[in-house]
């Protein structure tokens, strides 16, 4: 038996959205014009599930919440490195996982996919960046800097410094001093 | 908004054809979204950079010993022009003396590479350099103190 039918794409799309948003227990408001509003506190995992389910109907969500997540991860890391009292007593991985309410495996995967580095490496790079600033400020000794940055020893700080820059802290300091002197001369 | 990383534009100035070819092959095998433009001496490199129609690269790999204009001369010229402030400069040299490394950084280089002697090391070096450079482009790190020797 052959049947003919007609349909309204807009209504079909709306029903599909309603069904899937309800199923994932996401609070929403359909605004029309291909726009819906959802609660900001929807977890990224739920959001990804939604995206995946809608894909089969060729409905694509245009916003990219991953970019937002990566920025948040970076912000949290920078915060704990620059404010000593915020440094977690547990591991950083556990701290990130709890703070973002996401599995750490998921956090590291998203981060690596978008940043050309890993979370671990980003932490090291940021710690060394702060170490550079502290070295140039000349207020703390290298031992005090290693304490400030939660390194177990000054030797460990030096090793990581060398890994990230290829230089020893003293060679680094000497280069910056000379470089600044040179640019002063150029200005004169 | 971060999209997948933009195409990376790399320049290399080296009078040794074989070195350029190896570099090109290594970059190809890394499958990064990149574009390589090469120059056989410092003079043609500077002509290219000073032409305002050419888009500035992300990273420049600079051999120190080149005819017409040496790498050091190029480095000084580039660093005295504020238009090139965002271009990372990687010195690509056969020397690994502390003095050469230190002088290059003082003159404004960001990266110092002792030319690797085998292909897999070369690949790793290029990857490490591009990855590190990306952090400086995307994470608010200070370019004044961007030194990476490897």
UniProtKB/TrEMBL annotation, chain A:
Instruction: Enumerate the UniProt keywords alphabetically.
Output: DNA-binding, Transcription, Transcription regulation
Cited SMART domains: HTH_ARAC
Any one Gene Ontology MF annotation carried by this entry is:
DNA-binding transcription factor activity
Reading the lineage from the top rank, the first entry is Bacteria
Q: Which residues form the HTH araC/xylS-type domain?
A: 96-175
Protein name in the entry = AraC-type DNA-binding protein
Origin species, per record, is: Flavobacterium omnivorum
From TrEMBL, chain B:
So which domain of life are we looking at? Bacteria
Q: Which InterPro entries match?
A: CheY-like_superfamily, Sig_transdc_resp-reg_receiver, TCS_response_regulator
State the SUPFAM superfamilies in the record: CheY-like
Residues in Response regulatory domain copies: 9-130
**Would I find Phosphoprotein among this entry's keywords?**
yes
Nucleus among the record's keywords? Answer: no
Which keywords are on file for this protein?
Phosphoprotein
Q: Which residues get modified to 4-aspartylphosphate?
A: 63
For this entry, list what GO says about its biological process.
phosphorelay signal transduction system
Q: What is this protein called?
A: Response regulator receiver domain-containing protein
Provide the taxonomic classification: Bacteria, Pseudomonadati, Bacteroidota, Flavobacteriia, Flavobacteriales
């Amino acid at each position: 038996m052959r049947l003919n039918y007609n349909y309204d794409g807009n209504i079909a799309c709306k029903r599909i959205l309603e069904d899937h948003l309800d199923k994932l227990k996401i609070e929403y408001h359909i605004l029309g014009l291909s726009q819906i509003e959802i609660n900001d506190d929807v977890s990224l995992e739920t959001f990804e599930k939604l995206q995946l389910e809608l894909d089969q109907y060729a409905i694509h969500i245009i916003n990219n919440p991953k970019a937002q997540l990566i920025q948040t991860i970076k912000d949290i890391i920078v915060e704990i490195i620059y404010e000593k009292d915020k440094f977690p007593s547990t591991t950083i991985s556990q701290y990130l996982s709890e703070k973002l309410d996401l599995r750490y495996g998921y956090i590291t995967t998203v981060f690596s996919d978008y940043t050309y580095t890993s979370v671990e490496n980003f932490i090291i790079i940021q710690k060394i960046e702060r170490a550079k600033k502290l070295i140039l400020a000349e207020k703390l000794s290298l031992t005090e800097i290693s304490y400030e940055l939660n390194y177990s020893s000054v030797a460990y700080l030096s090793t990581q410094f060398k890994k990230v820059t290829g230089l020893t802290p003293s060679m680094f300091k000497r280069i910056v001093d000379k470089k600044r002197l040179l640019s002063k001369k150029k200005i004169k | 908004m971060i999209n997948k990383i933009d195409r990376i534009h790399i320049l290399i100035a080296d009078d040794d054809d074989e070195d350029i070819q190896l570099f090109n092959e290594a970059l190809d095998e890394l499958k990064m979204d990149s574009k390589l433009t090469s120059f056989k001496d410092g003079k043609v490199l500077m002509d290219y950079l000073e032409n305002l129609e050419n888009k500035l690269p992300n990273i420049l790999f600079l051999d120190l010993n080149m005819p017409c204009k040496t790498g050091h001369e190029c480095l000084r010229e580039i660093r005295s022009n504020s238009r090139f402030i965002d271009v990372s400069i990687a010195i690509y040299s056969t020397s690994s003396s502390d003095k050469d490394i230190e002088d290059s950084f003082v003159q404004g280089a960001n990266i110092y590479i002792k030319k690797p002697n085998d292909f897999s090391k070369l690949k790793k070096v290029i990857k490490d350099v591009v990855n590190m450079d990306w952090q400086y482009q995307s994470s608010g790190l200070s370019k004044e103190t961007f030194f990476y020797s490897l």
